[in-house]
Specification:
about 350 residues; alpha/beta; Aminopeptidase; 2 domains; seven-stranded mixed sheet; five-stranded mixed sheet; 9 helices; 16 strands; globular
């Protein structure tokens, strides 16, 4: 697929420092505090733009020269912007944080030539066996890209500059392939199961966005999406050989899978906003119940050349994947329709504060 973008817009308004419980002013330039959790999209609806401190993932992407999704986001809201979101580097965020409330702030991007990028998705489809259920689809996904080669990261001769992404996200890709093999060898499920390996997740979820717009099944037929992301190492904050689910409290999907043997618990790192930082969010913002399965314990090899296969805990990874081998076929053979809990469905235009 080809993605073409151009970034050019101007946004201005009074600066407002976000404080929990304080109403957001109409057309404000809303600055979120560093280290704070993102407010629900509905609370920021009045803002002209939401500014946040860039995540570690975005900072690494910027320093590596990897394309960022921000120009794409700005190109989508040319004209009258609707709650655009921009991540700021630490110096810019600190400078804005020092300004008094109400200071008039203007943000402007310059028009430039269109940028064309190419990316790839790898899709497998196991068509359902039931005439009444085959139109329903379960999407099991991971991303096959990482942040590439960064020769300027370490100028010393012979230094490792290749970002292998063993945990992020070769581990998730392995899980999807193993589940595909297990389900292909078993009895064909009633519902259709799609195994998707998305390209360009690190550049803003471009592969999953294309899948949603031009995938093998209509979006309205997708019952649920589970994204497998960074499951190669255990998280010391949860029981051994267990995985956590982003946004566990948002829907009834995680609890139903756990009841049927999945070693799934709630995400212990809610302040990291991981629910919005993988391909699942592209589905969730379109109404599909979608979560990410992970066990990322905030290890220091994240987005570093040291994310090597030698750091993978295969026993943990194998046990965790095996715990999904029965619950996922149950979902694919049932008539269960996962639902968002009241007030927990992400808003279609909610501020996207992280990848």
């Amino acid at each position: 697929m080809t993605v073409t973008s151009v970034a050019a817009t101007r946004i201005s308004g009074p600066l407002q420092h976000y404080r929990e419980g304080t109403p957001v002013q109409d057309r404000a330039v809303l600055l979120l505090p560093s280290g704070g959790a993102a407010p629900p999209g509905g609370l920021t609806a009045a803002a002209a733009i939401v500014l946040s401190l860039e995540t570690e993932q975005l900072r690494t992407r910027r320093e590596a020269g990897t394309p960022s999704p921000r120009p794409l986001a700005l190109s989508w809201i040319q004209g009258v912007p609707t709650r655009a979101a921009v991540a700021l580097d630490a110096a810019t965020h600190a400078a804005l944080a020092a300004l008094p409330e109400g200071t008039q702030v203007a943000l402007e991007t310059r028009a430039g030539p269109s940028e064309t990028r190419h990316t790839w998705n790898v899709i497998g489809k196991l068509t359902g066996s039931s005439r009444s259920h085959a139109q329903d689809a379960i999407v099991l996904s991971a991303h096959l890209d990482h942040v590439g080669n960064r020769p300027n990261a370490n100028p010393e001769p012979g230094a490792d500059t290749i970002y292998n992404g063993a945990d992020d996200d070769a581990s998730g890709t392995t899980a999807v392939l193993e589940l595909a093999q297990a389900m292909a060898w078993g009895k064909r499920p009633k519902r259709t199961v799609i195994f998707a390996l998305f390209g360009s997740e690190e550049a803003g979820g471009l592969g999953s966005r294309h899948f949603i717009d031009a995938g093998p099944v209509p979006l309205t037929h997708i019952v649920a999406n589970l994204q497998f992301e960074m499951i190669g190492r255990p998280d010391p904050k949860i029981p051994a050989q267990t995985l956590w689910l982003t946004g566990y409290e948002r829907s009834d999907l995680g609890s139903e899978l756990a009841r049927r043997g999945a070693r799934l618990v709630a995400d212990p790192h809610r302040q990291q906003n991981f629910f919005t930082r993988s391909d699942n969010i592209q589905f969730a913002r379109r109404g599909v119940v979608a979560h990410t399965v992970s066990s990322f314990g905030l290890h220091t090899d994240y987005h570093r050349p040291s994310d090597e296969v030698g750091t993978i805990d295969f026993r943990h990874m194998t046990t965790a994947i095996r715990s999904m081998v029965q619950p996922i076929p149950w979902l694919a053979n049932s008539s269960f329709q996962p639902e968002w809990h009241e007030g927990q469905r992400p808003q279609p235009n909610a501020s996207h504060l992280g990848p």
